[in-house]
Amino acid sequence: RTLRSGGDVLIPTDTAGRALELLLLFEQTWRAERGLQRFPLLFTSHVPHATVEFAKSHIEWMSDDVVNAFDSKRENAFELRHARLCADAREADAVRGPKVMLASFDDLESGVARALLPRICAHNASLVLLTRRPREGSLASQLLATPTPRTLSVSV
User: Fold this and answer.
1) From the DSSP assignment, how many helices (H) and strands (E) are in the chain?
2) Distance between CA atoms of residues 133 and 60, nearest Å
3) For residue range 7-23, what is the model confidence (pLDDT) as tens digits?
4) Greater confidence, 84 or 150?
5) What's the structural domain count of the chain?
6) Distance between CA atoms of 14 and 48, rounded to whole angstroms?
7) Residue 60 belongs to a domain
8) Can you say how many angstroms the Cα of residue 119 is from the centroid of all Cα atoms in its chain?
9) Are 110 and 15 in contact (CB under 8 A)?
């Protein structure tokens, strides 16, 4: 609904572990659901290319499904067809239209997610989706504790 309404989805995450799980989940969803393919999927951190290259070369440490797909079909789950890798907020902002952005860091205290947050919050149709309970006292925990449509004061 957020994307169809013209909003962006910001999913703050770490730079490797959880981010890779989410990246695979979204990549599989984009492959399966043709209607989503018109919306860009971004993996945005300071090291997205290195993270994905590392994951590609360590398939043996992944889930059984990922390993079996590689063994039987020579299909590397991290050969991304839909996700674009962006190294900073400027690259993510250059992608026009509603989009889903996996961005570091999950507490919103720093990183690309923090840089994108003011723009996301400025658009009523946009959504910040937290995938785990944030660290107490972090900006993400304040956001979670502040029900919409109240205002959360953020200094940039």
Assistant:
1) 6, 5
2) 29
3) 999 999 998 889 999 99
4) 84
5) 1
6) 11
7) yes
8) 16
9) no
Contacts for 95 with CB less than 8 Å, ≥ 6 apart: 40, 42, 84, 86
List the domain range (segments joined by +) for residue 62. Answer: 9-145
Specify the range with the lowest mean pLDDT, choosing from 60-74, 89-103, 141-155. Answer: 141-155
The count of other CB atoms within 10 Å of the CB of residue 141 is: 16
Residue type, 92: A
Q: How confident is the model at residue 155 (pLDDT cuts 50, 70, 90)?
A: low
Number of residues in the chain: 156
Q: Is pLDDT at 45 greater than 80 in this prediction? A: yes
User: Residue 14 domain-assigned?
Assistant: yes
Count CA within 13 A, CB hemisphere, residue 16: 9
CATH code of the domain covering residue 78: 3.40.50.10890
Give the residue from 12, 7, 5 showing the smallest Cα distance to 130: 12
Residue that has been written with the tokens 């999927």 in this structure: 41
Separation CA 151–CA 1 (nearest Å): 22
**How far is it, in rounded angstroms, from Cα 72 to Cα 142?**
46
Quick one: tokens of 72? 């039987």
Closest CA to 91 of 110, 116, 127, 109: 116
